Protein: Aluminum-activated malate transporter 13
Organism: Capsicum baccatum
Amino acid sequence: MGVEMEVNNGENNTTNWVPIMKKLHILNVLEKVKKIPKLICKTIWRIGKEDPRRVIHSIKVGLSLTLVSLLYLMEPLFKGFGTNAIWAVMTVVVVLEFTAGATLCKGLNRGLGTLLAGSLAFLIEYVATKTGHIFRAIFIGAALFFIGATATYMRFIPYIKKNYDYGVVIFLLTFNLITVSSYRVDNVLKIAHERFYTIAIGCGICLLMSLLIFPNWSGEDLHNFTAAKFEGLAKSIEACVNEYFSDEEQQKSKENSSDLEDPIYNGYKTVLDSKSFDETLALYASWEPRHSRHCYKFPWQQYVKLGNVLRHFGYTIVALHGCLQTEIQTPRSVRAMFKDPCIRLAMEVTKALKELGDSIRYRRHCSPEILSDHLHEALQDLNNAIKSQPKLFIGSKNNNNTNKLTLATTVVSKGQSGALNSRRVSLSSVKTDTSALLEWKSKLRGITTHENTKENKSLRPTLSKIAITSLEFSEALPFAAFASLLVEIVARLDLVIEEVEELGRIAHFKEYNYQDDDDHVVVKIDEKHSRPLQNDQLPSHDAGD
C-alpha cells in the first residue's frame, strides 16, 4: 500500500512539473522575441555607420524608382508608353549598382544587347515574311536555334565572359521575345520601340544617379583597398613577432581574454581573399570615365598585379604565423637570446610597409629612405646573434648522447604504463648522434616483434616524438624556421617595393616631399575609405529582366 502511494506521488510530481516547464519555455521564447527589434536596430545602425555611402546609395535607388514610376503613374506619360513603362522600373532595379563602374557596365551591356537583339529580330522577321506562312515558322525556329547556340557558345570566350556576359544574356532574352511574339502579334514593331525607349529611359536615370549624384568610383575603392592591405600586413607581422617572444604571463592573459578575433589572422586574411574582389573592382574601373583632377588613365591592371605580389607576400606571413602553432616549440629561454634583433627587424619591415601604404593612399612616390640602413643593420644584428650561438644550431657530438638515448630506449621497452610517466621527464633532455639513432632503431624493431598490434599503435606517436626531440638541434630548429621566414619577408619586400614604384610611375604619382610626413601625421583617414565593399555591395550577376 505504501509503495502504491509513493508511485502515485511521483506521478503527481511529474504531472505538476509539465506545465511549469511549458511556462518557462514560453517565457524564454518571449524574451528572445523582445530582443529581436533591438537587434535589428543595432544591425541597421552598424551597417550604416561602417560605410555611410550605403545610406546614400539606398536613397538614390529609392529616388530612381520614384522617377521611373512616373511613366506609369502620370496619365500623359502612360498614354505614350502604355504597359511597357514597367520595363523602365525593371531596368532600374537590375542596372543601378553601388559603384559607377558597375552601373556603367550593366547599363551599357543592357542597352547594347537590347539594340542588337532588336535589330537582328527585325531582320529575321523581314526575311521570314517573304517565305510564306508555313516556311515562316520553320525559318523562325531555325533562326532561334542558330542564334541561341551561337550566342551561348560565345559566352564561353574568356574576354566576352569577363566583359559582356550580361549583355549576351539580355541579347538572347530580347531576341527570343521579339522573334517568337512576332509570329502571333501584328504590331510587334511598335511594342519593340516602346520597350526600347523605356529601357533607355531606365538606363539613363541609372547613369545620371551613378555618375552625377554622389558617385562611388570603383577605381577609388580599389585604390583605397590596396592601400589598406599594407597596414593589415604590417599589423600581422608586428603582432606575430610580439606574440612569439611574449612571456608566459602575457600568453596566459591572452588565452583568458574574451576577444575571439586573432589580430594576426585578421591582418592578412583580407589580402589572401582579395583576388576575385580586386579583379571585379578593376573590371568595373575599366568602364569608368577619367574623373581625376589630371584625367590620367586609371592603371587598374597594375593594381591587380600589385595585389598578386601582396598575396605572395602574405603567404610568408601565414607560414610565420604557423610557427606560433607548431607542436615542437623552442624554449622561451632560447628565444630570449634573439628577441631584440627579431623585434627590431620586424619593426623596420612594418615601417616600410606603412610607408608603401601611405605612398599609395596619398598618391606620391615612396620615400628614398624606405630601405634605409636600419633595415640592413637589423638583418646584420640577427645574423650576428645566430652566429654567436653555434651550439644551438650545430649541436655537440658528445659520447654521452649515446648513453642518454640508450636510457630513453630502455624506458620505452619497459611497458606502456610505466613508460608514460618516464618519457615526460626524459624527453626534454634526450639528444643523440648517428650511432645512437642506429641503436635506437634496432631496439625499436625488437619491440615491435614482441608486442601485439594494439600496443604498437599506442606507442608509435610517442616513439616518433622521441625521434624528433632526440635531434641535437631540436630546441633551436623551430626558431631557425621562424628566423628564416623573417629574412624571407625582407627579401619579398623588395618585390613589393618594385611593384609600388611601377604603379607610381604609370599612375603619375607626385614626387616625394619631406614635408608631407609632417602633414600626414595629423591627417586621419576615414575608415570608410579603407574598407572593402561587402558582398551586398558587389553587383549581382543575375540575368533577370
